[in-house]
Amino acid sequence: MQIRRRPPSPSFSISHMRYQVSVPGSEPQNILEEIVWYKETEVQAQREKLPLSKLKQRIDSVAPPKNFLQALRQGKTQPALIAEVKKASPSKGIIRENFDPVEIARAYDRGGASCLSVLTDRKFFQGSFENLAKVRAAVDLPLLCKEFIIYPYQMYQARLHGADAVLLIAAILSDRDLNYFTKIIRALGMTPLVEVHSLEELDRVLSLDNIELIGINNRNLEDFTVDLRTTEELVNARRSQLQERDIVLVSESGLHTAQDLQFVASVGANAVLIGESLVKKDNPTEAIATLFV
Ligand SMILES: O=P(O)(O)OC[C@@H](O)[C@@H](O)c1c[nH]c2ccccc12
């Protein structure tokens, strides 16, 4: 997927004209572009409130990160479960009214999740870094910060609020940023989870050194369609390389039934990332039990 990091700017300015000139292509083409363009403004505002130098100082007093990758390798279930704390999404709207992130996180912990994922994006997913910090204080499981990372600042924010792993979305990052950002995440003692949706993105990620954890998103973020065969196709295309490098593979999104889990596990997923189908149930602990039969 080709994601433009910023809206195209007009090549000339017509400042004396009273009319707004619409630049061709100045509207976001899909949700990922819309989110990333907005993120630019959002991160800028956060930096003005708390500069990176101050943010870094605060991290010194945060408890050290937990080992996210090891928790997945050891897996309390087969495949290992990363359960997601998610209130809403652009594709589904509000998934759960009366959303209490801590209550949901505790229910996931009791149900046997190996790790948790916490959405921190405010505008599109109604998440927050406060939710991440609250969940951190309430459970002992390793936590993934689910954010649209485009600047190093955000990775420090993730660590400050207790993250042990950080999502990087290959579709919105250049090769250079992917390489640099995975290094920052590791330098902070956390684990990068790099997400792909196409073979082209998978190959870009496999060309990086030290890649240990890859997520395959079954959801197409251009049109929100979900197809579990995305996991099958990508794993099949690069199976030997993934195995030789001992990479832990996470199948992400659109998993609803025990059969869905068996399918992605049978094609080679070591772990699954599940949000909606657990969050929308009154009892997420029981919901986990019905998925792992
Ligand atoms: O709610 P689902 O369909 O179980 O999906 C969870 C997770 O995979 C999804 O939230 C997700 C995958 N990649 C992302 C990137 C950003 C935001 C969200 C996501």
Automatic annotation (TrEMBL):
Please indicate which superkingdom the organism of origin belongs to: Bacteria
Q: Which GO-annotated molecular functions does the record name?
A: indole-3-glycerol-phosphate synthase activity
Instruction: Please state every residue range assigned to the domain named Indole-3-glycerol phosphate synthase.
Output: 32-291
Q: In which pathway does it act?
A: Amino-acid biosynthesis; L-tryptophan biosynthesis; L-tryptophan from chorismate: step 4/5
What is this enzyme's catalytic activity, as reactions? 1-(2-carboxyphenylamino)-1-deoxy-D-ribulose 5-phosphate + H(+) = (1S,2R)-1-C-(indol-3-yl)glycerol 3-phosphate + CO2 + H2O
Q: Which SUPFAM superfamilies match?
A: Ribulose-phoshate binding barrel (SSF51366)
State the EC number(s): 4.1.1.48
For this protein, the record's CDD domains field holds: IGPS
**Record's keyword terms, sorted:** Amino-acid biosynthesis, Aromatic amino acid biosynthesis, Decarboxylase, Lyase, Tryptophan biosynthesis
Similarity field: Belongs to the TrpC family.
Q: What is this protein called?
A: Indole-3-glycerol phosphate synthase
